[in-house]
Amino acid sequence: MKKIVLSGIRPTGQLHLGNYLGALQKFVRMQQEGIYDSFFFIADLHALTTQPDPAVLHANVRHIVAEYLAAGLDPEKSTIFVQSDVPEIPELYLLLNMHVGIGELMRTAAFKDKARKQLGITVNKEGDDDSDVAREIIGNESNKRVNAGLLTYPTLMAVDILIQHADFVPVGKDQEQHLELTRRFARRFNSFYGVEYFKEPENFNFGGKPVKVPGLDGSGKMGKSEGNCIYLVDEDKALRKKVMRAVTDSGPTEPNQPMAEPIENLFTLLKLVSAPDVVEHFTTAYNNCEIRYGDLKKQLAEDILKITAPIRERTREIENDDEYLARVLKQGAEQARERASKTLSEVRQIMGITPFWK
Ligand code: TRP
């Protein structure tokens, strides 16, 4: 039996370099290994937790499927599908929620972040104090609302994974807590019903650490909401311009000086996209105080374009091929539903809601 790989991305906009280096590139590599049964999907139900405009959501799903295919995911080798095409997922989500605590969900970092944003609470980076979120949510003083879908985001994600009995879930560092919850829910279900049913999935990083792709604005990770992204479909000129504008400092003044965060970030990006001798060259230049950030950025932009430009061109071709996209997603949904419906009926049986009159 082949090990099962599964992962997904929320369709909140065009994919950026962080999505690619942190997730999509790994998906493609795992597919190419040829030793896994792999499932890659678009998490459109998860996208609903932030209440997107319906037409925008629709366009994003189409665009990301095209980007998946353009980056090298192959419907003959992997199951590529849209989450909402698998109705077994929302049903199992309802069932699994019966074993999930609202407290543990409220303590999830991603939830606290988003809830604070929705409630307009300013983020306090120092203290790990949950009481502000809890008080605002349970208290009846404010008319602001945090939707229940956002709270149960981890249940839905656990279901995506458990319904296919995935062994490996290649995700970035920010998703590790969700993966940990998935394992906990699996163990809890198994022990509550006294069955060895669900597997505990693991992250997968080809032996390395999960990558955190930095943005161009000097600090933090690349993210759409951060506005510091390079998109896979950026045109050459626009991309070069973005890279040239990346934040730097005035340069090292003494040999082997430690790097400030913005410079460290540029080197992190360079290591991710450039050849080792290129990285070596600029590292030596930095250490000898001979570095010219302009040269580094030029090189970085060209090495990023080597990756993104071909993906951009293929995305443009595929994006408008309705017939092809429909074919891929229809086949993907059928394949994804095969195992999902088996899991769902087994879980119904285990939980005691199989109709007794049949
Ligand atoms: N939460 C993931 C993200 O924001 C997307 C996701 C949803 C996912 N369901 C998943 C990832 C299942 C891996 C497996 O990126």
Structural summary, described in words:
The chain has 358 residues and is mostly helical. The chain is 55% helix and 5% strand. It has 15 helices and 3 strands. The protein has helices at 17-33, 44-47, 54-71, 88-97, 102-106, 109-119, 131-138, 148-151, 153-162, 176-193, 236-244, 261-273, 276-287, 293-319, 322-351, and strands at residues 3-9, 36-42, 78-82. A 3-stranded parallel beta sheet has the order 1-2-3. Helix 3 (54-71) packs across helix 14 (293-319) and helix 4 (88-97) runs parallel beside helix 15. The chain is globular. It starts with a strand and ends in a 7-residue tail after the last helix. Tryptophan (TRP) binds next to strand 1 and helix 9. Tryptophan binds next to strand 1 and helix 9.
Short description:
The chain is mainly alpha-helical and 358 residues long.
Number of helices, where a helix is a run of at least 4 consecutive DSSP H or I residues: 15
Helix content: 40-55%
What would you call the shape? globular
Please report which band the strand proportion falls in: under 5%, 5-15%, 15-25%, 25-35%, 35-45% or over 45%: 5-15%
Question: What string, H for helix and E for strand, traces the elements in order?
Answer: EHEHHEHHHHHHHHHHHH
How far is the N terminus from the C terminus?
33 Å
Which helices and strands, and how do they pair?
Blueprint lengths: L2 E7 L7 H17 L2 E7 L1 H4 L6 H18 L6 E5 L5 H10 L4 H5 L2 H11 L11 H8 L9 H4 L1 H10 L13 H18 L42 H9 L16 H13 L2 H12 L5 H27 L2 H30 L7
Helix pairs in contact: 3-14, 4-9, 4-15, 9-10, 11-14, 12-14
This protein binds tryptophan.
